[in-house]
Amino acid sequence: MPITPFKKHGLVSPASSSINTDNPLFSVFGGDSGLANLSSQIAINSTTQTASFRVEAKDAGASTWTPVIGATSLTLSGTGSAPSLAQLTPFTSSADKGVQFNTAKYYGTGSTSAYDIANATDDVILEVVFQHVVTGAEQCLFSKYDTATGKGFLTVVTASDTIQSYGAIAHAAFGTLINKSWYHLIVFADRNGNNRVYLNGALGNSTANLNNAQTNTQELKVGAYGAAISGKSSSIVSLCQLWTCAAGTINTTAEQDTIAASRFNQLCGTYPLKALGTATPTFTRASIAYLDRVIDETTGERRLFKVGAAWPRVVRRKNGTDGWFNGYLSEGAVTNRFLWSEDFSNAAWSKLLGAAVTGTAAPDGSTNAFAFTPTASTGTHSIQQTVAGSTDYISIFAKKGSNDYMGIRLNSGGTDYAIFNLATGAVANTSGSSINATIVDYGNGWYLCGAGPGGGTNQVYFVTTNSPSSLTYTEASGATVGTYFFGAMSNNSTQRFSQSYIITTTASASRQQDLLTFVSASNYQTQPGAMVTKLLLPSSASLAASQGIFQSYTDASNTMLITATTAGLPNASVTTSAASQVSGSGTTNLRTATLQMLTVSFATNNFKMGVGSAELTDTSCTMPAATTLYVGNTQGSAALFGVITSLKIYNSTKL
C-alpha cells in the first residue's frame, strides 16, 4: 500500500482517507532539476523532431567527448590549456557536470561532413546550457560555420556579452549576460526568415535566417569556430544539442514560445510532474540570484551558484530523519546594503585589531574568502562597516580558524549581538531582547550565521573571539587566523532570518521577487477539491507582514488565498462573487524550520484547512472557480520566504 503524504512525517488528514493520494490531478515540485529533464525530442507543428547531435559534459574526456546522440565523437583540438572537466553545476541531479573552457582548446568533429546542415532546406534548433564567464572577447558556444562564405550556423557570446546567433551573415542579439551566471539557450532558425533566440525561456530577438546552406567546409565545434579557430570560449558548457529538420517543420512561432518556456522550466525543475492540459509555468524575477546546491549529502556541503534573471531556483534540503528532498525556493525582493560584500580588504571595511587577507576557498567555489588574523592585543578583533538600515538582518559565511567562536555585533555600544560556535554549528549566546540568531551548516566547516534586527545605526562588526559569552578577548599569538569570512549581507527586508546571498561591489545591490504562476482552468476549477502543500519555512519570531503560500484566482471577486500570518499560522481568505465566504487562521506555526504539510479541502458548504487535523472549518460557504494559481505569492506581492517541496491538487475533499 503506498504511503500517503499524510502518513509520512506522522501527519493525519483533516478528512477521511478514501482516495489514492498518489494520483493527483496536478503535481509540481519534488523532482530533480537537471539535463535529464531535457528530452532529445521536440513536438512541433504536428511532428516529432529528434536531435541529431547531443553531448553532455559528464561524457567529456581528456581527449574525446562522446555524444549521447550522434555517431561521430568530438576530439580535443587546438593549442594551449585543455578544458577543465567535471565542473559542478547548479542542478540537484548529481550526475550533471560542466566543461570549463579555458580560452584555448576546443572540441571538434574533425570531419566536415559529420552533423552537417546538408542542404538549403534544413531548419535548425540548437539548445545549450551554460555558465557565462566574462572575458571581454567573443566566445563561441556552438559552430558549424564557414567564416569565408558566411554559410552555416553559429552561436556566440559577443565581446560585449550578448548572444548572437548567425545564419548567413545576419544575427540576432539578446540582452547583456552576467558574469558567472547560468543560462538556458534555445534557438529556432528556419528558412522563412526567422532566427528566434530564447534565453531562460524568454524571446530575445528574431532577425536572421538560414538562406545559405552549410557546404561541408567546416567541422562542428564546441568552444570555437572557423578555420582560424576564432571565438575561443571560457564558458562552462553542460549540454549542447542540435536538431536539423525539414524546412517548414519548426516555423510555428507560437509553439516555439511554448517549447522554449516549457523546456527551461523542465530543466529548472518547476514544470508540473502531472497536469491536465497545458500548465506551463510563468516565472519572473528581474535580477540574477544565488542558489545553493548540496554537493555532498553525507557532510551536507553546499556550493553557491549564480543563475540568470527569470531562473526559478530548485534546491535540496534535509528534514531530520526523513532524508533529503527537493523544493522550490521562494523569496521576496531584498537589498544588500553592504558595499564590497566579498572584499574585506576594501576601505569600506574597517579592520580593528586585525588584518584580512584573501585567497581561501569559499562556498561559491572561488578563492575569495578572507582569513582574518587578530593582532596580539586585548579587545574586539573585527571587521566593521556601517549601513543605513537600523533594523536590517545581518548575515555572513564564517569558518573557524584558531578561534571556535564568531560574533555579529549590531551597534557601537555592543549591547545587541550574537555569538556562534563554529566548531559545533550552534548559536552560543545572544544579547538584546529583539535579536533573532540563526546558523545554517554549509559543510566543509562553513556556516551561514545571521543576527538581527539591531538597534542604533547598524554599525556592524564581525568579530573573532575565543569566548562563547564575550566579544572581547586577549589574543596572545597575533600570527594565526582567527576566523575565515565570506559574503557579508545587510538585508533590508523585515524578515528575521538569513536569505540567499546577494553580491555587491561599489554600491548596494538587490534581488527581485520570485513570482511563479500557473494558468490552466482545467487544473484549478475542480470541485470538490483539495490542495496539499509541503513546505519548509525558516524559524522566525513574528514577522511584519503575512506571506502568500498560494492563491487560486480568477479575479478579485473570486479567489481563494492561503497565507502564513505574521505569527506563522496558516490563514484562509475565500471570496466568491465579491462576498466573503471563509476567513480565519489555523493554530499550527508553520515557521519551525521543519517540514510541514498543509491541507486545504473545499466544496460547497465544506471547507477545511489544517496541519495534521482540521484547524479551520466552514460549513456554509460557496467556493469560487479559478483559472490561475499563484505559488509563493499573492498576485505578485506578499512573497513567501521558504521552500515549497510539493503542491498537489485532487478532485476530492476526502484524502
Task: Describe this entry's structure for a reader.
This protein is mostly beta strands and 655 residues long. It has 3 domains: 1-31 and 272-333 and 512-655, Jelly Rolls (Sandwich), CATH 2.60.120.200; 35-268, Jelly Rolls (Sandwich), CATH 2.60.120; 335-511, Jelly Rolls (Sandwich). It is built from 2 helices and 51 strands. The strands form 10 sheets. Strands 4, 7, 8, 10, 15, 16, 17, 19, 21 and 22 form a 10-stranded mixed sheet that branches. The radius of gyration is 27 Å and the shape is flat. 54% of the residues are buried.
Characteristics:
single chain; 655 residues; mainly beta; Jelly Rolls; 3 domains; ten-stranded mixed β-sheet; eight-stranded antiparallel β-sheet; 2 helices; 51 strands; 44% strand; flat; disordered N terminus
State the share of residues found in helices, binned by percent.
under 10%
Q: Which CATH first-tier class of the largest domain would you pick?
A: Mainly Beta
C-alpha-based Rg, rounded: 27 Å
Overall tally of domains: 3
Please count the helical segments. Answer: 2
Q: Which whole number gives the mean pLDDT?
A: 89
Largest sheet: 10 strands, mixed
- If classified by CATH, what would the architecture of the largest domain be? Sandwich
The 3D shape can be described as flat
Number of strands: 51
- Uncertain residue segments: 1-19
Instruction: Say what the CATH topology of the largest domain is.
Output: Jelly Rolls
Structural class: mainly beta
Q: How much strand content do the residues show?
A: 35-45%
Q: How far from one another are the termini? A: 15 Å
